[in-house]
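Tutorial handout. Part one gives the primary structure; part two gives the three-dimensional structure as tokens.
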Amino acid sequence: MLRLPHSFFLTGTDTGVGKTYLTAQIVRSRRADGIDCVGMKPICCGDRHDAEILHAAADQIPSLNVVNPIWLRTPAAPYVASMVDSQPIDLSLLYKAYQRLRDSHEQVIVEGVGGWRVPITRDFAVNDLAAELKLPVVVVVSNRLGALNHCLLTVESIRASNVNCAGVILNDAECAPGEGDVAARTNSAVLEELLQVPILAKIQHGGEELHAVRSR
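Part two.
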């Protein structure tokens, strides 16, 4: 059984590692168990598909504009997108939307944009947002070659930010590990040995459930 925090900030080692998929799964699972859990995507860049998935996972109870208070049309890092769109980012909108969700719902899972150090404004990045929200952080990493470096660097940066890193989730996001895929087959065991935070779970490629690496 996963021992995830009740509310937490979900970051990734990169974009496209499965943050939205994971957030939506957890929201749906908890709501099916009778827990009033919702997801939040503070910033979308490009389309709004990620926020729409989280909105649907929570039965469309919070409005889409609360789930996603800032939507930039350019598919780039928020700092870049805001300049291209000539749309300054108002951080107060993020805090007000988050507080509204916290006041109205039992649990809130906040999904970051891109990786841990992606700039939101010139002097404010994803890591600063997580720190401001005072949430424990869970890291999702794509289970492939390069995962060790990306995961270790991300967790190291989280800890340097004086934010609680609750653990890591491995995601077979690209394909099911083959017999010759040494990295994908060994990443879990190696990270267990090297990390100072727990491996919370592993998501099987194409699966609908999260499989814990081990019970705790």
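Part three, for discussion. The two ends are 8 Å apart (CA to CA). The chain has one domain: 8-211.
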